[in-house]
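Repro:
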Amino acid sequence: MDLLNQVILFGGALFLVSVLASSLSPRVGMPLLLVFLIIGMLAGVDGLGGLQYDDVQSAYLLATLALAVILFDGGLRTDSHNFRVGLKPALTLATLGVIATAALCGAFAAWMLGLKWEQGFLIGAIVGSTDAAAVFSVLNMQGLALKKRVGATLEIESGLNDPMAIFLTIIMIEFMISGEDGVSWTMFGQFGWQMGLGALIGLAGGRLLAYGVGRLALSPGLYPLLALFGGITIYGLAAVAQASGFLAVYLAGLVVGNRVSRGLYNIQRFHDGIAWLAQISLFLMLGLLVSPRELLAYAPSALLVSLFLIFVARPVAVWLCLLPFQFSWQEKTFISWVGLRGAVPIVLAMFPWLAGFEHWPFFFNIAFFMVLISLVLQGWTVAPMARWLNLDVPSSSSRVQRVELGVPGQVGYEFVGYKIADGSPALRLSTDNLSLPAQTSLLCVLRDDQPLPLGQGHAFKPGDHVYLLATAADLVALDKAFVGVEEPERLSALAFFGEFAVTPRAKLADLGTLYGFSVPEDKANWSIARYIYNKYKQPVVGDRVRLGQVEFVVLAMDDARLTKISLKLHK
């Protein structure tokens, strides 16, 4: 009993330290995953805790479960509209990109480290997939928002590239165990089966789960649990059917997140905490598995392969894969740099361990050290790189309080609260002349902890707390009305989008006459929209097209249709 109590105390303290240490990450720009890994290493066999953990079977089970939860949460938060601009390039990166990265990195590892070609390619397969979750945690903590084309591509790639890396790793392990007779063309048919059936199970299971969340009458607290264990069940069903469980659970989360409208915020908020718990557990456990002393012995070799992966293999693969798509060199450079390695390469490095390879510590420690290098070198520089390449756009506001009413299946009204800050647009208004959406009602204004009479036209002041009844569809408009967002001068509305907003139907010749810039004769009757579509088949907010000293900037989109363009004059 004393041992059990000590385990509970130690485990609780370890998680508590991890949560508290995460508060340091935004201040120093350190990726949170690196924080959790370091804490796990400090608690491990060579650290202060001295805890010895080397049960690879339980580690693999826990890692698989944690990854399934993380991928399901990622699917829940992926907007289906992002697929319009991100699916094709992301799918190319998640398949051909992983193969190219693994091949280049594997060839270099075999040549530089003096390995057999199959050993080098196994290393390449293990580290072939990226972990964009770490990227978005850094960007969110830095208060950055990426252009939709870039953000959507990275987001979808991170959810789709794991099955290919797993497939390549298994192929190489079977080849090394059985020789050439152990690998046949039927394995590629099996891969098609895994991907196809995994996608089918994920999409069908997600639709069924979304239907259950929307129609079943349960206690409000049970809907997040229904979604969570439904996602885990979908993963298990796909895995038992020899399909890709990771692909299935990601697509299931995507379907649920885009088909459930009422009650989704509570589900996402619950899963946000569960996903953090899964990430903390996963990286603490992975930190416990490694011995820092042994890791240092592989450091020189892993450093060489890491630098080649970061500066050569990933960029070459990205630039080749994105050739058919309309990405600027800045966007390709950033996507190349955001090749963060995370949990999946370490989990894949357990496969040689599980297969009983004699030299499994070599693969495990190489992969682990490469993940550390990636998190330190790339993770610390993601935000500065986005700013340097001008890929960040003005960030959106966020409300300070939001409480959904009722349960799924009922009317989707919410209580929404705002605290009026200096610079808020609402400071120019009063409770009487406040323009609100049709389905929104002003409920209460608190000033110095006292409610104000709503019928007397009080002007808003900094520090006021405003509470409204609204629908989820009105939250964007309310954010603009109540929350003042301070942007760097480079990202201010005037500096970023330009001086004048114009209709996409405006003719270039008319604008040239009005603002004094020349227009080529063959394009005189073109509209601005046609001029932009001529360069971007799928434009996104923030895209720019230059015409002489004038620059047209995409200001607003309605799905795939341009709705507002800004005109920026350059002297």
